[in-house]
Amino acid sequence: MKKGETIEGQAEVVEDIAPEQLADLAALEAVAAADIPPGGETEAEPGPAVSSEESLAGLLVVGGMAAGMMGYKRVAAIWNEPACRGFSDRACPVLRKYSWGMRVLDFLDTGAGVEEMALLMYAAPLVLATMAAAKEDAADMRPAEPEKQAEPEKPAPYRPESMPEVHEVGG
Q1: Most CB within 10 Å of its CB: which of 18, 30, 48, 76?
Q2: φ/ψ bin of 4: left (φ > 0), alpha (ψ from -120 to 50), beta (otherwise)
Q3: Contact 3, 13 (CB under 8 A)
Q4: Cα separation of 57 and 50, whole Å?
Q5: Would you place residue 49 in the very low, low, confident or very high pLDDT band (cuts 50, 70, 90)?
Q6: DSSP state of 10
Q7: What is the pTM of this model?
Q8: Is 147 a residue whose pLDDT tops 70?
Q9: 90-102 as b/e: b if 16+ CB within 10 A
């Protein structure tokens, strides 16, 4: 859309509109022409592509893999795919019994929070490494303990058997 042109049913576009605004107006016109509702949603909302059980199992498997990448090989071996699937298959029915559990399952069903999970998985190793580095830095900042000076030798303790034998004179 160029300056001076009109949008369907609108007055002439003002001469001082920025190119970005012209692009926005053209996009709005295209949306109106396509009869797409605001927000871009379509009429038929698809259901979850993955079940709660599959989502939870996948999340747990990724957690096990993250543990392995952080050096916890035994933990990663415990949280393998069959174990995660078994846990998920048994946990989801229990979660369905409670309102807070339904919120967790809804979170898993809708895929909401994927960005938060990605952030958590990215941040966890950074946080752990930061904590270890801070601990080492704190140890480096402590004043060094002064070297203990050698104490002078103490005289040996008195022992009667170490005394020379005394002889009586006279008698």
Answers
A1: 76
A2: left
A3: yes
A4: 11
A5: low
A6: S
A7: 0.44
A8: yes
A9: ebbeebeeeeebe
